[in-house]
Design a protein that fits this description.
The chain is of the alpha/beta class. It folds into 2 domains: 128 residues, NAD(P)-binding Rossmann-like Domain (Rossmann fold, 3-Layer(aba) Sandwich), CATH 3.40.50.720; 186 residues, Dihydrodipicolinate Reductase, domain 2, CATH 3.30.360. Helix content is 30%, strand content 23%. α4 links the parallel β6 and β7. α8 packs across α10. The longest helix has 20 residues. It is globular and about 75 Å long. The two termini are 44 Å apart. The structure holds nicotinamide-adenine-dinucleotide.
Length: 423
């Protein structure tokens, strides 16, 4: 039987646009029939929720800019990350769009330019990066080349007067990092390092839980990022191009995230490194790395990275009242976040329902907003340099078998800009 009261109540609610962020302007008042829902508020169309307040209310999509209004990005290096993750992510970005390409492979560049509607005269060789200066559509240059080339490409972009987003690891040495920061400072452009974890929603929620006290005092962290490498001839296994092995490639996620959880900077590191003798993949770079970071509050992060064990990416935060575990923590997708605590006298573990979002799109949009609003990125060049400083200490600790003390850096989020906003 139809509950007429409920139906008429639903129609009434719909017609006044109730629940649409309090907009309270009815479709009728906007000259539309009452069944044509949707209230326009600040250029955004908001609908009254069809589900009861006991249900999850999916957040409406963020306001997207018209394509011509978006911040234009030039992509430097058309490799696997650029073509399989970053370029597709522009479709989910709201403020960023690809407008130029830089590559040493004209055939790849032509194919990608055709796919994304990039003009032939916006395709450059590496040697021609200075010409980016003459392309006003390019506001940001995103460097996605092998690690040891980041410095030359970031400096070239800065000299062309463009803001720079640079892949991690920032560079193989602290001297390189400083040169990149200085080049961007001298050119008056922004430099952001692409630490996607600091934009990924599950990781951000884990950080929020740790900092809000929801887990009690977090004193232990465990971070693992392992993968089994293939071809020994790839640039990742060549020290002159990669800078190092599993540490700067995948262990860096553990390091950067451990620093971001509490916002403190470590004061001491200890480490061990082992590579299987005779394995051609480890002629030049290291395989397994375990390292421990001690923070001023007393918290300790145990981290490990591997280039020879099956894929595993997990982080656990251990607090006095609860623990939080993120599976697929450093993967491109598939993250889950579970919190375990005593509830009603029973130990209960529950998954937090977090809407998955494309972390590359969030990262691109953050850079775009930083450029537009003239704010420091959450993960600027100094954040990358601090990781490099600590990775150098990790190598030293492993080589000497001694703990290495780091300079005290009081305060929280010392190297970071403001948190990214939802829009
Ligand atoms: P890739 O090998 O697939 O791509 C590298 C690109 O650089 C290729 O197009 C290659 O042609 C070009 N290149 C230019 N000069 C080169 C040279 N001298 N030697 C080799 N290649 C040269 O690598 P990738 O996986 O796309 O990694 C690129 C960067 O992105 C690295 O810094 C890596 O650490 C980073 N990365 C980040 C993530 C992430 O999740 N944020 C994931 C993968 C890679």
């Amino acid at each position: 039987m139809i509950d007429k009261t409920a139906v008429s109540r639903r129609i009434a609610l719909a017609s006044i646009g109730a629940g649409a962020a309090g907009a309270g302007v009815s479709a009728m008042a906007q000259g539309r029939p009452p069944v044509d829902l949707g209230t326009v508020l600040n250029g955004k169309v908001l609908f009254p929720p069809p589900a009861a307040s006991s249900e999850v209310q999916p957040s409406p999509p963020r306001n997207a800019d018209a394509p011509t209004q978006r911040v234009g990005f030039a992509i430097v290096g058309l490799g696997k990350l650029a073509l399989e993750q970053v370029m597709p992510a522009f479709a989910q970005a709201k403020h960023a769009r690809p407008v130029a390409l830089v590559s040493g492979s004209p055939d790849k560049m032509q194919a990608i330019a055709a796919q994304y509607g990039i003009a032939a005269d916006a395709c450059y060789s590496y040697a021609d990066m200075a010409k980016l200066r003459d392309n006003p559509a390019v506001q940001v240059v995103y460097v996605i080349t092998p690690n040891a080339l980041h410095r030359q490409h970031v400096v070239a972009a800065a000299r062309a007067g463009k803001h720079v987003l640079c892949e991690k690891p920032m560079a193989p040495s602290l001297a390189d990092c400083h040169a990149m920061i200085e080049a961007c400072r001298a050119a008056g452009v922004k430099l952001m390092i692409a630490y996607r974890m600091q934009y990924q929603p599950h990781a951000r929620e884990a950080i929020r839980l740790a900092r809000s006290g929801a887990l009690g005092a977090v004193t232990l962290m465990d971070m693992i990022n392992n993968q089994n490498q293939g071809d020994p001839a790839q640039w990742r296994q060549i020290k002159a191009l990669a800078g190092g092995g599993s540490l700067p490639d995948v262990g860096l996620y553990c390091l950067n995230t451990a620093r971001a959880v509490l916002g403190e900077e470590p004061i001491e590191v200890s480490a061990q490194i082992w590579s299987p003798p005779g394995d051609p993949r480890f002629r030049e770079v290291e395989d397994n790395v375990t390292f421990s970071l001690r923070f001023p509050s007393g918290a300790i992060a145990n981290c490990m990275s591997s280039y020879s064990t099956h894929r595993l990416a997990r982080l656990t935060l251990m607090g006095s009242d609860a623990s939080a575990t993120m599976e697929h923590a450093f993967d491109y997708q598939g993250q889950t976040l579970r919190v375990s605590r005593l509830t009603d006298g029973k130990e209960q573990a529950g998954e937090i329902g977090i809407e998955p979002k494309n972390q590359f799109a969030l990262e691109l949009d953050h850079m775009a907003q930083c450029v537009r609003q003239n704010i420091t990125p959450r993960t600027p060049g100094e954040e990358g340099a601090q990781d490099q400083r600590i990775m150098e200490a990790i190598y030293e600790a492993a080589r000497t078998g001694q703990r290495v003390r780091l300079a005290q850096m009081p305060g929280l989020d010392r190297f970071r800009g403001p948190e990214p906003t939802a829009e």
